[in-house]
What does this fold into?
Amino acid sequence: MTPNAEMVVVRSLAESDLGIFKAHRSSATSKQRAIAMTTPAAKELLAPDLYAAKGMRMDVICVYAGYGARELRHLGKVGKNWRLGGRKIEAGACGLLDSRDFVLLRSVSHNDGTRPLVMTFVGRQRERLLHAGIVASLEGDFRDGVAIVRQGTDEFDALAAAFPPVPAALAVALPVTDPDDDGDVPRSAGSGGG
It folds into this structure.
């Protein structure tokens, strides 16, 4: 993959991922506030030094159904698993998401922390046709619930068009830090600090 080429990581949500949503916290089987990632996805998302350091806090812009937030979220190895964690996602529309719906994470490949990740969701209830299209077009690409879609493909173009525009206030704002963060997560100098 060429440097700074974009990619979209598509994660099929598992029941254990739903604890990241405020709307699911009381009924979620897992209380973790994180979305699972695979090692191949983490290796392609993170710059080699960040991957070797087992992750960092990344600038993540989350946009979905009129909701928008920009915050530092930990993308790293926790125990033997890679996860994207952080504060609860407050969007009320996330209450309609369920296991086997999708989180889409758009980034440059080998992100060194100087570029934000953009995250959105695709659910069977709200985005029925788009959800069916993802299932049909990526069905053979999923490995452990994750598909990596690279720039330069028809699938990438279709998924890139599915991302809502980032509101100007979020595009220029600094990311919010998680007050529950213990500060032990490695960061790069260009990550926005925090």
Q: What stands out?
A: Confidence is low (pLDDT under 50) at residues 182-194.
